[in-house]
């Protein structure tokens, strides 16, 4: 398919992979210039696969933010890995993100083995967080990381400073195959509003409770209803594994959940572009992380 200047139209799927906390969601956000994927200083924040669709005159990039690849310890961990590996297998371009500030280690090697085995036409090594690494550290990390797999190119970025984010998009677009526009031009993300609402609530929980609430919390957005006056009423459930965790999420006098609700609501109002009433309920579901059905119901794993 060519445009009026006879430039071939290119399109394809770009998988961002890397170990947990490598900076995948932050790079995706920077590419979009707005907040879509959630980020936090806690590893394994990304549980759902987020897609951002970036349209230019000659190309359409579908960027997929995968859960951080890691050696799984429980059923949720396995599902997350399977989801990431499935995206890797289907991608036209793979961007392997390595944190410039953390010595290359076993975790990176493990991810790299999967990158090496992927069929993608173009594999790019992306060194992230350049703003907080010194030049020597960057160059040492680059040479260590480039040994991990066979890469077509390498790039140093800082997603928070916007350094080389455009270069990333240009490089990746230049290596997409010729293809159609997969998604309508006006559409940027293919996660549902319910997915995004759940992710925003989770983000706030992680921000405020990260010591107390490691990974045993799940959020399900049950319903988004729109009233005649245009506001949205949203019901969401926070799943925890133990009674004690329910108390932590609620906080003294319900203050914690109130704070989480207020902050999440602000992001959701921006996302939906209307006033939002958000009702959060906390439910104890023992061992939900070991229950594959519950994980799938929450939408964290592969589609059935
Ligand atoms: N200084 C700096 N911090 C960054 C940069 N990119 C990411 N971070 C921080 O690194 C942490 C992890 O970033 P995320 O984007 O959530 O990492 P991720 O790879 O998506 O993590 P998972 O979802 O666990 O796989 C967050 O605290 C980010 O703010 C960067 O370019 N510079």
Automatic annotation (TrEMBL):
Region (G4): 128-131
InterPro entries listed in its UniProt record: G_ERA_dom (IPR030388), GTP-bd (IPR006073), GTPase_Era-like (IPR005662), KH_dom-like_a/b (IPR015946), KH_dom_type_2 (IPR004044), KH_sf_prok-type (IPR009019), P-loop_NTPase (IPR027417), Small_GTP-bd (IPR005225)
Keyword Transport assigned: no
G3: region residues: 65-68
Location of this chain's protein in the cell: Cytoplasm; Cell membrane
Region of interest (G5), residue spans: 157-159
Keyword Cytoplasm: yes
Domain KH type-2 intervals: 209-286
Subunit structure and binding partners: Monomer.
Role this protein plays: An essential GTPase that binds both GDP and GTP, with rapid nucleotide exchange. Plays a role in 16S rRNA processing and 30S ribosomal subunit biogenesis and possibly also in cell cycle regulation and energy metabolism.
Family statement: Belongs to the TRAFAC class TrmE-Era-EngA-EngB-Septin-like GTPase superfamily. Era GTPase family.
Protein name: GTPase Era
Organism of origin: Thermophilibacter provencensis
Lineage of producing organism: Bacteria, Bacillati, Actinomycetota, Coriobacteriia, Coriobacteriales
């Amino acid at each position: 398919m060519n445009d009026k200047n006879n430039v071939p139209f290119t399109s394809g799927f770009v998988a961002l992979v890397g170990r947990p906390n490598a900076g995948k969601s932050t790079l995706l956000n920077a590419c979009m210039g707005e907040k879509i994927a959630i980020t936090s200083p806690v590893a394994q924040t990304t549980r759902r696969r987020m897609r951002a669709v970036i349209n230019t005159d000659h190309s359409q990039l579908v960027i997929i933010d995968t859960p951080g690849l890691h050696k799984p310890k429980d059923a949720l961990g396995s599902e997350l890995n399977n989801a990431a590996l499935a995206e890797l297998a289907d991608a036209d371009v793979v961007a392997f993100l390595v944190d410039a500030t953390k010595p290359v280690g076993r975790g990176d090697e493990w991810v790299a083995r999967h990158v090496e085995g992927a069929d993608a036409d173009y594999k790019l090594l992306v060194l992230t967080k350049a703003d907080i690494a010194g030049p020597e550290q960057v160059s040492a990390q680059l040479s260590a990381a480039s040994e991990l797999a066979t890469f077509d190119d390498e790039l140093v970025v800082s997603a928070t400073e916007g350094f080389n984010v455009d270069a990333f998009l240009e490089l990746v677009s230049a290596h997409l195959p010729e293809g159609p526009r997969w998604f309508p031009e006006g559409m940027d993300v293919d996660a549902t509003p319910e997915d995004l609402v759940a992710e925003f609530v989770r983000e706030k929980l992680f921000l405020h409770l990260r010591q107390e609430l490691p990974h045993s919390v799940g959020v399900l957005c049950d319903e988004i209803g729109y009233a005649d006056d245009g506001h949205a009423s949203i019901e969401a459930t926070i799943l925890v594994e133990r009674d004690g965790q329910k108390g932590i999420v609620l906080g003294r006098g319900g203050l914690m959940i109130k704070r989480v609700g207020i902050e999440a609501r602000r992001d959701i109002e921006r996302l939906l572009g209307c006033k939002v009433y958000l009702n959060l309920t906390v439910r104890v579901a023992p061992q939900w992380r070991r229950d594959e059905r519950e994980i799938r119901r929450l939408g964290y794993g592969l589609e059935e």
